[in-house]
Design brief:
Organism: Gymnopus androsaceus JB14
CATH superfamily: NAD(P)-binding Rossmann-like Domain
GO molecular function: oxidoreductase activity
Number of strands: 11
Number of domains: 1
Number of helices: 9
CATH class: Alpha Beta
Protein name: NAD(P)-binding protein
Helix content: 25-40%
Family: Belongs to the short-chain dehydrogenases/reductases (SDR) family.
Radius of gyration: 21 Å
InterPro entries: NAD(P)-bd_dom_sf, SDR_fam, SDR_oxidoreductase
Structural class: alpha/beta
Distance between the termini: 37 Å
CATH architecture: 3-Layer(aba) Sandwich
Order of helices and strands: EHEHEHEEHEEEHEEHHEHH
Length: about 325
């Protein structure tokens, strides 16, 4: 029995046909995908539908973007019920938990459960930390961190309290939080963006520790490298170079600006990443526990590996400075 706060009537939207009952067939999974108008989320929506699963994909209101309208128009009549498009504005000036819960409610009303949440929303700013107004940096955290956190909390609640039982326990669900290579390897010129992704990684890792294994909720942080998405073009906000950094062309922020200026050379295709994400979502636990992190792209895997090696080397170099300050057994060891 679904909990009463999810027994909501679906308002009349012209972009889908309300269903009176679940239309899940066989092993179909129900995906809730945020930020679906472009990039990874759009490609994941396409792959999910191609594989025969159900996609509940959100877009920023007021209008359905052309990219999603084309996906909807391409579906055969027999597939039309597999795509539900819902508005969700995590970039509004005052987003709320109720906006997020309303989307989950409508997905539950239509399909009875949610199996996978692909949590992906945000934007990028390019500029030195001194050159980006605090108002913009705070807005980035509101979306890149708090927007993702709201969706994560609601996903856990639905997986635990709303999804049906099977075999004596909840079916649980999969939460895929999209971070970035920058979530582990910060970049000059992307300081606030890197910080927002590192905040998301810390939040997600703590969430994994908190959830009860009996709830059968599996959570993974996705760490993509450079792909041809809106993060490197239309969703990129570039600020003028801070005057203090203009005189030395060897500073790293100069190189990152040149890199973004040549973003047409980026070869990473988000379609291939979406295929890998879909495959990963069905991870067979006979291979071991579901990984906490998944890098997407050779340079992400290599860059994060090298970063971890560098951190370990530095930690070993300063080990003596910590000795005896807080003895083992008397501090944070759980």
């Amino acid at each position: 029995m679904l909990k009463s706060n999810y027994q909501l009537s679906v308002s009349d939207h012209n972009h889908y046909h309300p269903m009176s009952e679940s239309h899940i067939i066989g092993n179909q999974r129900v995906w809730l995908i945020t930020g679906g108008s472009s990039g990874f989320s759009l490609e994941v929506t396409k792959v999910v539908l191609k594989k025969g699963d159900i996609a509940v994909t959100t877009y920023r209101p007021p209008n359905i973007p052309e990219s999603l309208a084309m996906v909807q128009a391409s579906l055969l009549s027999s597939q039309s019920s597999n795509l539900l498009l819902l508005p969700l504005d995590l970039a509004s000036s005052s987003p709320s938990d109720s906006q997020v819960s309303d989307v989950f409610s409508k997905a539950i009303t239509h399909f009875g459960r949610i199996d996978v949440v692909f949590n992906n929303v945000g934007f990028t700013t390019l500029g030195e930390i001194e050159g980006i107004p605090e108002e913009n940096a705070r807005r980035m955290f509101d979306i890149n961190f708090w927007g993702m956190a709201r969706v994560s909390r609601e996903a856990v609640k639905v997986f635990r309290d709303v999804n049906p039982e099977m075999g004596g326990g909840r079916i649980g669900g999969r939460l895929l939080n999209v971070s970035s290579r920058a979530g582990v390897v910060p970049n000059a010129g992307l300081g606030y963006y890197s910080a927002s992704k590192q905040a998301l990684e810390g939040f997600t890792e703590a969430l994994v520790m908190e959830v009860d294994p009996a709830w059968n909720i599996k959570i993974t942080i996705l760490e993509p490298s450079a792909f041809r998405t809106h993060a490197v073009n239309s969703s990129l906000i570039t600020f003028p170079q801070h005057p203090a950094y203009t005189s030395n062309p060897s500073l790293p922020s100069h190189f990152i600006r040149k890199w973004f200026a040549n973003h047409n050379d980026i070869t990473g295709d988000p379609m291939f990443a979406a295929e890998q994400i879909y495959k990963f979502s069905s991870w067979d636990e006979q291979e071991g526990e579901v990984p906490l992190r998944l890098q997407l792209g050779d340079d992400s895997w290599t860059g994060i590996r090298d970063r971890l090696k560098s951190m370990l080397k530095e930690q070993e170099r300063v080990e003596g400075w910590s000795k005896g300050l807080v003895p083992l057994g008397k501090g944070f060891e759980f």
